Amino acid sequence: MKRSLLLIMGLLALIASGQQVRVTSSTQLLRDVEPAFYPTLSPNGELLLYSDADAHGLKMLDLTTNKVTNISFENGAGFDAKWSPDGKVYYVTSMVDEKSRLVYRTGKCYDLSSQTSDVVLKAQHGAIHTEVGTQGIALNGTKEKFSSKPNRGISVYTEKSEIVVAINGKEHRYSPVESYAGYLWPSVSPAGDKIAFFAAGKGIVVIDLEGQVLAELGNYEMPCWYNNDYIVAQNASDDGYQFTSSQILLLKADGTFKHELTAKTSMTMQPTCGGEKIVYTTIDGLLTMITIEIND
Which residues contact 222 (CB under 8 A, 6 or more apart)? Predict the structure, then answer.
């Protein structure tokens, strides 16, 4: 039995070592136009959302025409903007009440065809969690909630150290790994069979829809699905005051393979994927789009 296990482990290592990744193109976006942060590619990779360093305002770059559209000029709009399966953009703005000094957040939806935004979740005090599903999207506030459709398919969001998985509207809550400061950046794989998220103190974790851990990929941040088998992530370090290094990694979702897409000294961060494209920015807000080839 021990010998068989060693043979299996050796075979897996051989398979992993045989994998090759090649960057096939690299294009700088918004060259000499403006710094850009929080990039978010549309699922087909044709449109890109972005903001400034403080997430003030939200813009959209058409990658086929290089046209830039202003979606919002409001505070917080660019921090966690999301594409819904129907092609609309959902985002959350924030404002501080002058009397109470409390922060109020408002959920909004931008329609590309009409080029207008509508309020879908009125201003309320407290956090709003964006829940992206395979068929719809929801904005979950502490007082009120919004859903783009009753059945969001398979969707996910986080609350502190819980991952909330909704299947056809029925929620299931899991805490698959310990985390001293909670979970962040949850997302469903393209095939809808796996979920990736970041657990503070643990790193990126991949689970199935029943909350069982499939793999722990390492202490990296901001995971996004490149396809159903690979995840792109940020690997950053700091000295407690500022970043000392940051790079973009390609990780196999089963934990058997890792490849550096950029160097640690590049200070590249905030990756996003869509349409077999990868976009990331730098600490100075320089956007780059790359395509890759994976030979398994």
Answer: 185, 198, 233, 234, 269, 270, 271
φ, ψ (nearest 5 deg) of residue 169: 90, -10
Condensed to tens digits (0 to 9), the pLDDT of residues 188-245 reads 999 999 999 999 999 999 999 999 999 999 999 999 999 999 999 999 999 989 999 9
- The string of DSSP codes covering the chain is -HHHHHHHHHHHHHHHHT-EEEEEEEEEESTTT---EEEEE-TTSSEEEEE-TT--SEEEEETTT--EEEEE-STTTTTS-EE-TTS-EEEEEEEE-TTT--EEEEEEEEETTTTEEEEEEEEEES-EEEEEESS-EEEEESS-EEESSS--SEEEEEETTEEEEEETTEEEEE--S--SS-EEEEEE-TTSS-EEEEETTTEEEEE-TTS-EEEEEES-EEEEESSSSEEEEEEEEE-SSSEEEEEEEEEETTSS-EEESS-GGG-EEEEEEETTEEEEEETT--EEEEEEEEE-
Count the neighbouring beta carbons within 10 Å of the beta carbon of residue 243. Answer: 12
Could you tell me the CA-to-CA distances from 171 to 100, 146, 162, 164, 167 in Å, in that order? 34, 15, 12, 6, 7
What pLDDT score was predicted for residue 168?
A: 86
Q: Could you count the other beta carbons within 10 Å of the beta carbon of residue 81? A: 25
Tally of CB atoms within 10 A around 132: 19
List phi, psi (to 5°) of 100: -85, -20
Terminal CA-CA length for the chain? 28
Spatial separation of the C-alpha atoms in residues 39 and 279, rounded to whole Å: 7
Tokens for 287?
Answer: 């956007």
